[in-house]
Structure to design on (196 residues):
């Protein structure tokens, strides 16, 4: 038996011997009737995409691959938070861009020009190198940008429902925060949505 076959046999065992297998077991135990398991990774491209961002995708894809190896349908979505606001200027950007960067504070990252002038916008400059490397690592997430999410009719419908049910959601958020040991409590009248 070669090393590859031996590794596959280890991975096929439904045990918690590795954290990705433990995660896959928890998923199928919690949601046993799902036709397709959808796993999500995500990051905000507010500057250089780092190993932590890449690790999130790598772990999510690893769990997806375990689920598929066990015979389940699964897919990974990578959500790129391209509409997050530009909060501060990264120190590594070109001086020419930094001189005018204050006018971009608060604007969606996708609305900011590429600091280096080689891509259509800020997001594309920092995301493209990461996306183009996925194939080399055997990763195949479905990439979705915030713009695509925010303009999706189903998202808008769910967002409307969140606003209607905001008091119930506030109670749920507070319960989750309390269980996690956080002291921040959302007050009555809080709305779980911050439009630009």
């Amino acid at each position: 038996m070669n090393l590859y076959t031996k590794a596959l046999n280890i991975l096929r065992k439904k045990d918690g011997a590795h954290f990705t297998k433990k995660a896959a077991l928890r998923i199928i135990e919690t949601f046993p009737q799902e036709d397709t398991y959808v796993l999500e990774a995500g990051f905000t491209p507010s500057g250089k995409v780092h190993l932590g961002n890449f690790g999130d995708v790598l772990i999510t894809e690893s769990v997806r691959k375990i689920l598929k190896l066990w015979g389940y349908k699964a897919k990974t979505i990578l959500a790129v938070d391209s509409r997050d606001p530009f909060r501060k200027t990264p120190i590594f950007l070109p001086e020419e861009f930094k001189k005018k960067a204050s006018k971009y504070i608060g604007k969606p990252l996708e609305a900011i020009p590429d600091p280096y002038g080689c891509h259509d916008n800020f997001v594309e400059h920092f995301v493209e190198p990461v996306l183009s490397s996925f194939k080399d690592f055997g990763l195949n997430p479905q990439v979705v940008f915030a713009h695509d999410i925010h303009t999706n009719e189903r998202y808008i419908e769910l967002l409307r429902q969140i606003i209607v049910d905001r008091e119930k959601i506030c109670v749920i958020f507070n319960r989750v925060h309390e269980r996690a040991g956080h002291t921040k409590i959302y007050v009555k009248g809080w709305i779980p949505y911050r439009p630009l």
